[in-house]
Amino acid sequence: MATSAVARETVFALRRQIAKIEGTLPERLEVPAGAAPVDADVTPQDLTIVRRGLAVAPPDAFLRTGAEGLDTALSGGLPKAALSEIHGAATRDAGAVAGFTLSLVSLILKQWPRLPVLWIGTAEVFREAGFPYARGLHALFGIEPERLLFSEAPRLLDALWTAEEAARMTVLAAVILEIRGSPQRLDLTATRRLHTRAQSAGRPVFLLRQAGEPEPTAAPVRLVLSAAPSAPRETIAGPLAGSIGRPAFTVSIGKSRTALPGQFTLEWNPDERSFEERRAGQERAKNPVPVVSAPRRGKDPAAAAGAVLAFAAVGSPALGDQPSPSERATHRRPRRAG
């Protein structure tokens, strides 16, 4: 019985040590004895250990998303100078993962508006998920297309080397490394190098995973992303039926050294450049400033708009839309294979 109890205590100790390494231990680490505050205005109670024995970070070292629930669960937000994982369970979630990451980049560029962002990936990654749309970058995230640089590597080894070299540069606002699947080269050693160089440069490194397994890494935070249904657009007459509102994401905390697992539904506000948390059964906060003044005369606006089609009414087209006799002959010619 004594041998069994000792073996059980040994197993529990090993499991606890593994949980600390992976960041799945639900406890808040305390400031070590004798550690001096980073700032004289910051008290020891306001400091949080990002990783035991490596860094004691003040509250301004975290990137606040604007969603109070998520920021509180992450003890202030995502660490700015660290490696953060953003997972998509399937390839179809690559768009949601990219959109959420670009939202974080938009928040980062508020601090470094003149610095570019480097997005690194293999040819397989960009072939499956594609590239961000330039006009959408500016419209939804306020990112100038020339600020977003892409590096397409032929192999994963080349992509990791590029990310490690870029993570140490302070001329970049952020580094994004997108990986597909669960390759063996993306292990604790590789992610530890990325995390250490991000801490040294004081810049964030985002590790995007397409259909990857939640394996042990050196990243303090791992978020699991998927697309959430968008709410209808708000008008002075209420929600517009059949419309598509702001982009929405379902965010799950898969791993955090200072937070318990949790799930949140966030909406990205492209005008305010911040996230808003959507709670079940809670309506969106009303805008205190009316968009359009209420009419003094006449009837009230309709409760919902009718069906709107993006096609012209049925009927004969205009004369100018008809092809000419020479064009008709060209249209009838067979398409050449060469």
Explain this structure:
The protein has 338 residues and is α/β, with parallel strands linked by helices. The chain is 27% helix and 22% strand. It is built from eight helices and 15 strands. It has helices at 2-22, 68-73, 94-108, 123-129, 134-141, 156-167, 188-201, 325-332, and strands at 48-51, 55-57, 62-63, 78-79, 83-88, 117-122, 148-153, 174-180, 205-210, 221-227, 234-235, 238-239, 248-256, 263-269, 274-277. The strands form four sheets. It has a nine-stranded mixed beta sheet with strand order 7-6-8-9-5-10-13-14-15, with helices on both faces. A two-stranded antiparallel ribbon has the order 1-2. The chain is globular and about 90 Å long. The termini are far apart. Residues 24-55 and 283-294 have low confidence and may be disordered.
Short characterization:
The chain has 338 residues and is of the alpha/beta class.
Secondary-structure topology with pairs:
Layout: H1 2-22, E1 48-51, E2 55-57, E3 62-63, H2 68-73, E4 78-79, E5 83-88, H3 94-108, E6 117-122, H4 123-129, H5 134-141, E7 148-153, H6 156-167, E8 174-180, H7 188-201, E9 205-210, E10 221-227, E11 234-235, E12 238-239, E13 248-256, E14 263-269, E15 274-277, H8 325-332
Parallel strand pairs: 5-9, 5-10, 6-7, 6-8, 8-9
Antiparallel strand pairs: 1-2, 3-4, 10-13, 11-12, 13-14, 14-15
